[in-house]
Amino acid sequence: MAARRGARFAETMEGTLRPAAADGGSRPVRLDLRVTTRGAIRPRGSTTALVEGRVRIAGWADDHRASGTMVIAPLSEGRIAYEVRFTALDGRRYVLEGHKSPVWRSPLRSMTTLPVRLRPAGVADATGEGGATGAGLLRFRLRTLPSFAASWRFPAPAATGGTPTDRTAATTATAGTTATTTATTTATAEALVAVRPDRLNVWYSTFTDPDTSTGFWLHHELVRPVEGAPYTHGWAAVYPPDAPPVVDRFGPQPLPEERPGPARGTTPARPAGFHSPSAVATARELRGRTARLAWDLEVTADSAPLHTFPRLAWRRRVLPAVHAVHQAQARYTGSVRLDGEPLPLAAAPGADARIAGRGNAHRWAWLHADLDGDTVLEVVTAVSGLPLLRLLPPLVFLRLRSGGRDWPRGDWRSSLGVLGVGRFRGRPQLPTWSVRGRAGGRRIAVRVDLPEERRTAVRYTDPDGAEATCHNSERADVHVRLERWCDGRWHTERVWDLRGTAHAEVGLR
Prior knowledge:
This protein has 509 residues and is mostly beta strands. The protein has helices at 107-112, 145-150, 164-175, 177-193, 311-316, 413-416, and strands at 7-19, 27-37, 47-57, 61-73, 79-87, 93-100, 113-120, 134-139, 200-208, 215-223, 231-239, 246-254, 273-275, 279-282, 285-289, 293-300, 321-338, 341-357, 363-372, 375-383, 395-402, 405-407, 425-426, 432-439, 442-449, 456-461, 467-486, 489-508.
């Protein structure tokens, strides 16, 4: 018999926890959980689900690798039980447990209230008070109901049963989840890195040496001009902390004739990406040479692509141009040479991204910032190059990824709002530009500074011959404030302040 589809959903709960210690006081708590069931949820039975996500207890714990179980049995047992294991800031392991008790007399209150108890991991007393080190109350906020409902998915079940060999293979596949995820991520990145039939295809990489704070920018273009033959060109730039930036170009070079595709079942002659006599940019490697610069780098990444623009725009070409970060939290290892002097790199953080469309925007600003080891921010704010669309205010495309989760939840939210209301606001300008917006009970303010001594001015040429100037800095400053609406007012959730390690630019005409 075919296995039934399981379910996946995301749930956020907030509240307070009072540690057992006399001087503990109440601490704000937030759970961001992703729940996965291996089979269908049975309302009249009992379903055990796997839980993973993030546990935050103010000043005490912030573990984005928390895990545990959820027992969903609202009718048969009258409860929905949670057991989440996490690591506190002092390195000790704890268990946060509790259960909702659904009752028909008060369905809303009983389904949104979760009394919890905290105990050290390894203490077997899960029901009595002997092992408890704290207690509290969490609530499901009704303002999160739309995102909760939108998070539900019903994926097809994995193959089960079959011969012992089949079951062994399934077990091996489960044990290799990390490797499979990495392979899937690479395959997705390679799909995004492939050449598109647009007039302008751009591949660029930006990264920072964590030891010296030197910034790097590799930019590759395939241009199909309105008049003339297609060509490839690009440039490389180095931004040392103690010297002026250096930019050096390669090309232009004629685009080689299209090779016929490989026969079915054979391996392609070369991987997808940018290929020219001077440089190569694929999902796995970056190689190239100019008069003053040479580079040979291996690229690794295990995070999913970050769609700055809506996925629909990338698939259906409904916008004049689109942007996607196919490797949002990449690492670069190898060497860059400047005038023959080696600049070695080891796991330098950065990102690979793609642009494709009719040409460059009329005005734009861009930011990529690795805010911390688990959080990355990507922002594009732009005015379209099409004559009629130039009259509109800049659209803002903002994606914040933290702990593997993206905000705003919808990739269209920052640019379109809800029926046009609540769009994020931004203005491309020098030397400082900013973006503001709010969605899903959060609001963000981003300020980007590009000091003149740390930026370069590079001339861009569109396929129609129009020109723009890109003012780029791979040693920009950025200040980010993220706030959350709670108890009738805004509370600061996180603040990041990066000096000389953000990647940003402003394009003007």
